[in-house]
Amino acid sequence: MAGERSEGVENGLGAKARMNVAMMQPTFLPWQGFFELIYQSDIFILLDDFQFSVQSYHQRNRLFSGPGKVDWYTVPVVKARSFGLPLNAACIDESSHWRKKMLNRLRHNYGKAPFFNEIVPKVEGWLADPAISLADHNMGFIRLVLELFGWKKDIKFSSTYHSDLQRSGRVLELLRLCGATKYYAANGSFGYMHEEGVFPVADIEVLFQNFAPKRYPQVGSPDEFVPFLSVLDSLFNIGPENSAQLIIKGTDEWRGWGQMCLINREGRKVMESLEKK
Fold it and tell me: Where in 6-134 does DSSP place strands (E)?
């Protein structure tokens, strides 16, 4: 298996000379870029007490559903008991046989993939394992993928540290609790971080992801590569070791705060010029 970026840290929140931290909400069947953030980190924080959003990546993700066709694979949630609640309180709807149906769907669409027979027993075990909440269910798959990659990472949970802060304020608080010197952030987080004005801070360098999916053979689309699918697609098609290598090489250049500000300004100028036409 691919090696880790660095040695894991001990349990606890002890500071370190250089501490790389990343964090994300535990999404369902995450894409490759999610695992790149984990790879880059010494401590990875799963934001399990952030609010659940219906029909989002919290409960669904994209995989092949037929030759050349991509569709959503969804875990059903009891909306009446989950709306407005954090992910670790969102309830999975077990009134249907969705676990069996999802496994059968995977067998139908990926059964001929080179690594399907190696990976599917582990996926079946995960699907068969009852979960307390949606967050718990999603974290089970994340742990499964890390085990396949052979990555031993220090995983923490935001719910462990109660706070009344929101969004950027909460992110900074968690970074400080971990003794972070560098924060590896998802590209999409720049917008609210910039708007809210909490960042940048002098003692923590922020680097934004610019993940570019690399082509690999796909049994569901042999002629045209389809990017941005769940990591399960590459696991079935090229196996854990090759998937890990593609993830490690996903971002060629991590963008600093100043570079993101420049990109954002240039993007606004382009939009403004188009609106004037």
Answer: 20-24, 43-46, 60-66, 69-74
Rounded Cα–Cα distance for residues 128 and 100 (Å): 8
Give me the pLDDT at residue 88, please: 95
**pTM for this entry:** 0.90
CA atoms of 47 and 161, how far apart (whole Å): 11
pLDDT at 94 over 80: yes
Tokens 């970026």 sit on residue: 5
* Residue 194 one-letter amino acid: H
Sequence-ordered strand ranges (E) for 15-161: 20-24, 43-46, 60-66, 69-74, 154-157
Distance between the two ends of the chain, CA-based, in angstroms?
53
Taking only the tens place, the pLDDT of each residue in 262-276 is 998 876 664 455 555
Which residue, among 193, 72, 187, 92, has the nearest Cα to 137 in the 3D structure? 92
Gap between the Cα atoms of 10 and 7, Å rounded: 10
Q: Which residue has the tokens 């049994």?
A: 219
Rounded CA-CA distance 235/148 in Å is 9
- What is the signed CA dihedral for 131, 133, 135, 136, rounded to 10 degrees? -30
Q: Average the pLDDT over each of 75-79, 218-222, 273-277 and give the range with the smallest value.
A: 273-277
Where does residue 164 rank: exposed (0-12), middle (13-18), buried (19+ CB within 10 A)?
exposed
Name the residue among 177, 172, 129, 130 with its Cα closest to residue 156: 177
Which tokens go with 180?
């972070």
Indicate the SS3 state at residue 165. coil
